[in-house]
Write a structure and sequence with these properties.
The strands form two sheets. A six-stranded mixed sheet has the order 3-5-6-7-8-9. The two termini are 15 Å apart. The protein has one domain: TIM Barrel, CATH 3.20.20.140. Helix content is 29%, strand content 20%. Helix 1 crosses helix 3. It is an alpha/beta fold. It is built from seven helices and eleven strands.
């Protein structure tokens, strides 16, 4: 089985993270992972005032963490893929995006003001998966299930009770895509999570296929 972390952050981009991208790669390699999806925060907190209201023009700024991680993994068989954890203006919910997020964030205007319904429509028209992250964390609210492709039910920072509530809510709403991720931010507090697959993930397209087909096991 191949092991992948699909929810992690770097200090190059996410202001709440202290782990440098190179250290993230080093740590996960040492723990036997085959790759990571860098899902840095794409949120109002990420961008300085000069970039805040046109983030689509500053994707190079946003992907600093991903690119640093990818460089750190050069000349190895460790896979580094781009992802995204988006939060809209004046809200607190987070949504994980998987697929060709580099082009998606660049070519669809200011997504920080899209909000769930519009974001869902854009994602589905362009092959991007939209998954609500840690839906039962304090202050979070549950998105309309009709807008979601999946739910993160096993988050490394969540309590067992929050995880159980997330899984029960997904099942109640017939959401079959239930993912897991460490939500890694700090090397001093490693949070192991993610998925196990029989197929090696070598691209964002393969990642999306495996998630949609349910061809994975969550690391609980």
């Amino acid at each position: 089985m191949f092991k992948y972390e699909i929810h992690c952050h770097t200090r190059e981009t996410s202001v709440c993270a202290t782990a440098a991208a190179a250290d993230v790669v080093k740590m996960y390699r040492e723990h036997g992972y085959d790759g990571i999806v860098v899902t840095d925060h794409f949120s109002p907190m990420t961008f300085p005032p000069t970039k805040l209201f046109c983030p689509q023009k500053h994707t190079d700024f946003y992907f600093r963490g991903y690119r640093a991680a990818k460089k750190a993994a050069e000349n190895t068989d460790f896979m580094v893929l781009p992802g995204c954890e988006i939060r809209f203006y004046a809200t607190i919910n987070d949504y994980l995006l998987y697929g060709d997020v580099e082009n998606f964030l660049k070519n669809n205007g200011n997504l920080l003001k899209a909000y769930p319904k519009k974001l869902s429509q854009l994602c589905r028209s362009q092959g991007i998966l939209m998954i609500q992250a840690h839906p039962f964390r304090e202050w979070m609210s549950r998105c309309n299930p009709a807008y979601l492709d999946g739910v993160e039910v096993a988050n490394g920072k969540d309590s067992p009770e929050e995880r159980a509530k997330a899984l029960a809510w997904a099942q109640k709403n017939n959401i079959t895509l239930c993912t897991g991720g460490g939500d890694f931010h700090h090397t001093k507090k490693p949070l192991m999570g993610g998925i196990l697959t029989e197929q090696r993930i070598d691209s964002t397209q393969t990642l999306v296929h495996i998630l949609q087909a349910g061809e994975f096991e969550r690391i609980e």
